[in-house]
Design brief:
Layout lengths: L11 H9 L8 E6 L15 H17 L3 H6 L2 E2 L2 E8 L8 E11 L3 E10 L2 E11 L1 E2 L2 E2 L2 H4 L1 H9 L2
Antiparallel strand pairs: 1-4, 2-7, 3-6, 4-5, 5-6, 7-8
């Protein structure tokens, strides 16, 4: 078994999830989202498609706080499309629930990196997820380590 180090207070459920991803260092960022009425379906629960939007809100906020918001990256002519997303729904949320979305950096390479998410209401995990992102310029893949080395270093420092 590989050892790992926890740098912040992380709930046991995401601790195990991150262990499975073989991460050595973890820097968490928490973003809060209050469920809106229009995000709920006829059953009164948050529609599953909204969780992907919540992930994007949290990811954008994470990069803003890191000092590399999308407007800064895109001003350089670089874009970061989503390559893949996986969501594991654990428990429903409803109107007015405040979801704490914990975001961490997972795997990082020169060409892409992964975000990990755990969404909680109080002490209850409602969703775990991950998203993989690449970088393109003029429609072609770019090595972020060469094109935006400061961003690459900042992302690596979050592992």
């Amino acid at each position: 078994m590989q050892k790992y180090e926890i740098k912040h207070n992380i709930p046991k459920s995401i601790e195990f999830f991150l262990f499975l991803c073989n991460l050595k260092h973890i820097h968490m960022h928490i973003y809060k989202h209050e469920v809106k009425y229009y995000e709920c379906d006829r059953m009164g629960v948050t529609h599953h498609s909204n969780y992907v939007r919540f992930m994007e809100e949290a990811r954008v906020d994470y990069l803003d706080k890191l000092g590399y918001g999308f407007e800064k990256i895109e001003a350089e002519g670089v874009f970061s499309p989503v390559v893949s997303i996986q969501c594991n729904y654990k428990s429903p949320t409803t109107f007015k629930d405040v979801i704490d979305i914990q975001v961490a950096i997972g795997k990082v390479s020169e060409m892409k990196f992964e975000f990990l998410y755990e969404m909680r209401v109080g002490n209850k995990t409602v969703c775990t997820a991950e998203s993989m992102h690449c970088f393109i310029e003029n429609g072609r893949p770019v090595a972020i380590s060469k094109r935006l080395p400061e961003l690459f270093k900042a992302i690596q420092s979050q592992q």
